[in-house]
Amino acid sequence: MSSSTAVAGASADPPVSPPSAAVPQTGPLHGSQLVLGTVALSLATFMNVLDSSIANVSIPAIAGDMGVSPSQGTWVITSFAVANAISVPLTGWLTQRLGQVRLFVGSVLLFVIASWLCGLAPNIESLILFRVLQGLVAGPMIPLSQTLLLGSYPQAKAGSAMAMWAMTVLVAPVVGPLLGGWITDNVSWPWIFYINIPVGILAAGITWSIYRKRDPGPKRMPLDYVGLGLLVLWVGALQIMIDKGKELDWFNSTQIVMLAVTSLVGFVVFLAWELTDSHPIVDLRLFAKRNFAFGTVALSLGYGLFFGNVVLMPLWLQQYMGYTATWAGMAMAPVGVLAIVLSPWVGKNVTKIDPRKLATVAFLGFGIVLWMRSHFNVQTDFRGVLIPTFIQGAAMAFFFIPLQAIMFSGLPPMRMPAAAGLSNFVRITMGAVGTSIFTTLWERRAAMHHAHLAESISRSSDAATAALSQLGAAGYSQEQGLSVVNRLIDQQAYTMAATDLFYLSSVLFVLIVSVVWLTRPKPGQNMGDGGGAH
Questions:
Q1: Which of 193, 224, 415, 530 has its CA 20 to 30 A from that of 155?
Q2: Where are the chain's structural domains?
Q3: Which is more confidently placed, 1 or 443?
Q4: Residue 89 exposed, middle or buried by CB count within 10 Å (0-12, 13-18, 19+)
Q5: What is the structure's pLDDT at 159?
């Protein structure tokens, strides 16, 4: 893996490998066209990655306006992620069928329309529907922006092009929480979607004007319609089951049982079909490769834990620690600083140092960060929240690049695009599942802690009597006093539940290290020699 190629993999949402259809060899761009092309492609990528993080700090505001609980509000995140995961395997076929420039520009414009609809959504159901649409059309944007950018530069400067591209996708997760928080507090949450409109139109217009003559054009390719239908069926049923399980009391609900059966049967049939079809939409045979299989498992489990915690932190800070959306964004933003600083070093050295050692640093780093967070309490100040977030950026730098080097080690060039698509599908799906599981467990643990705390604070308790007396002296009625005490118990219970999950995540991150060491990457292999930038 070359250093330039490796840097690209360090983004919060690492790129899918470019589709197998390469950019026509019409020569690199020059002068103003090269500058404008780079800016346009980077803007589209920035907009896409930004949208995966900008909504995190806005969930409480969205949920409040829509009249739903914050845990239901997280469907705004998971619906986008699941739809995005489903669309990723289609990128290669769509590129051949429509042409890469037409597909890229079309995806950007559809993304703009979906963003506009998200801002106009009158209720949570329509917002989720439009977020699904947004996720579906976003799939091809990141890999195609990378492909087009590589074709814009001479081969000798491909590394510089990918380094600039990678910085774009690393900066977006830093800007996302800050921008989302400020917009939510000072304007209104629909504008986190509306800001995509001018950016997307500008990026699409410049891209079309520069690249339309470089498009190889459409080409007929077979599509695995059955595989695609089964994929949508089992992934969709699984996500709906996880999202609605808490609300419907899990397997005591007939609807949840039916969703579980549908997902399981759909998954089994999907496996059988994909392993026997001549043009599978997902090449499951790749899991027969040791490095790819264990590398994908480590990446996906790690990303599920990471993303679940990324969603949980702003919810806890805003609901129970008194943070505004802006301050929650500021608390989360430093995660990208060390990632940007350290990623070039990791990319440069991933072929010189065993990538398993580098990945181990990432998982142990995440483990330390989550262990630090497991010691949070209701008195934790802003500085205490900030320090683990800042350190987490270093773990991110060591996470994506080495694991991608491991996954693609030993694969022939022709299988690289399929491998990248499959690994990203699994990773994005696990991110959505992780979010749903974390919010469910958080509420369950909080209910348990609330019950235990309430038992110890009864009317016969001296502390409870003294607190109610003080509140009464301050002018509170008995009902108001009890409400204040209950709010304090809630704050304590949800904080304890969050620290339980932080501790569990810490342990799991350390355990995943053993999965990394089940791989056997070839020493010194340069992934860039195999199949382009990954």
A1: 415
A2: 3-223+281-454+488-531, 224-280
A3: 443
A4: buried
A5: 56
